[in-house]
Amino acid sequence: MCTFGGGPAGAEGRTHACWDEGFHVASARGVFLGYIDREADGSYLAYNGRSRLVGRFPGLVAAMAATAHAHADATNTAPEIELRQVPDVFPGSVMQ
Question: CA separation (Å) from 31 to 12, 16, 21?
Fold first, then answer.
């Protein structure tokens, strides 16, 4: 599993976890924000916390930002995004 996030203090605890190749789940402090699914053509579909399509994006980072903005719009809070790759705690796992 690969995880991207700002850590406990950064980005309001926002995390994007890669649960399967091409499938990322976004959360913040235990709250489900949405998910991202990579399509066969390489684009990414971003969905909000209610599984409604937010949009199609050419890159993963843009889709990650869209899930954060969709949550912020729904909760009326300003999104803050900081991307940082978290080291894999399970060396030798499928995702590297």
Answer: 11, 12, 22
